[in-house]
Amino acid sequence: MGFKVWDLELEFIEGEYKSLISFDMRNLLKFLIHYHVTFLFIVLEVISFTITIQNNFYQRASFINNTTEISGNIYRIYSSVVEYFNVRNENDKLALENTALRKLLKSNYIINDKNIQQANDLIYKQKYDYINAKVINNSVFRQTNYITLNKGRNQGIKPDMGVINSQGIVGIVKDVSYNFSIVIPTININAHISAKIKKNNYFGTLSWDGKDYRYALLNEIPFHVKVSKGDTVVTSGYSSIFPEGITIGVVKDFNFNQGNNFYNIYIQLSTDFMNLNHVNVVSNLYKDEQKILENSVTHD
């Protein structure tokens, strides 16, 4: 009895399936019959269009040119879309390459005294190393602006490390967690960086007045120093944070403060803080040694 019931169920399902198929076929036939004139018109148009192109040079050339133009635009749009999604990867690659090239700069090395024999006896010894990082948060319109980086203690970043990019200095690392860092940028009223005028090596302190993120102030340059608009300002190298000669900006304007015999020098910053992406964190390999020695003198 069980097999008979099963067979009956199968026959019922097959009958329903066949009825559905026959119903769909009938609807399809009705649709084709109802619009057969339209379909016939389209087929004839395609045939006539094909014959015209094949037997007329001008129409064939025009068709090919238009087709090429359309396909070219399609490929251009496709290429733009692909390029857009590949930009991030390309930027990451370029940032890593820039970091690697920066490590090879001569300014990152110190010269050993040839009169002193050392075990490794190298002429040049590396002083600075660089850690590539990416900006994941940034502010420019506050008095105390901050920048967040996507790397931290696990990647070798420590407080008081300098931060630069391809345009110039960015700021100084303030705090770190295992995988993130907080940076005080140049455009923070609490930031003070040792800077000098490149052409004459007179140095002072770079600070920010909290007004415009594009400009900063260079203080403590005595009035007898020759200063001109357009003079390049760079890091002095007198701290253990930045290497010497990293670009800061150019002199935009200056005036003389008669009260203290120093210039007020306005610097147009080279770094565009509205467009920060990849940066390099500067690691001074001799920083601890330098700090220990300087602290011992200060305590005395």
Describe the structure.
This protein has 300 residues and is an alpha+beta fold. The protein has a domain at 124-299: Thrombin, subunit H. 38% of the residues lie in helices and 27% in strands. The chain is built from 4 helices and 14 strands. The chain has helices spanning 2-34, 36-55, 57-103, 287-299; strands at residues 109-111, 124-126, 128-138, 147-149, 162-164, 169-176, 181-185, 193-197, 203-207, 215-219, 232-235, 247-257, 262-269, 278-284. The strands form 3 sheets. A 6-stranded antiparallel barrel has the order 3-4-7-6-5-14. It has a 6-stranded antiparallel beta barrel with strand order 8-9-10-13-12-11. Strand 9 (203-207) and strand 10 (215-219) form a beta hairpin. The longest helix is centred in the first third of the chain and has 47 residues, at 57-103. The protein is elongated, with a radius of gyration of 36 Å. The relative contact order is 0.11. The model is unreliable at 1-6 and 113-122 (pLDDT under 50).
- Provide the low-confidence segments as ranges: 1-6, 113-122
User: Mean pLDDT, rounded to whole units?
Assistant: 77
Please name the fourth-level CATH homologous superfamily of the domain at 124-299.
Answer: Rod shape-determining protein MreC, domain 1
Order of helices and strands: HHHEEEEEEEEEEEEEEH
The first-level CATH class of the domain at 124-299 is given as Mainly Beta
| Radius of gyration, whole Å | 36 Å
The number of helical runs is 4
Structural class call reads: alpha+beta
Query: What portion of residues belong to β-strands?
Result: 25-35%
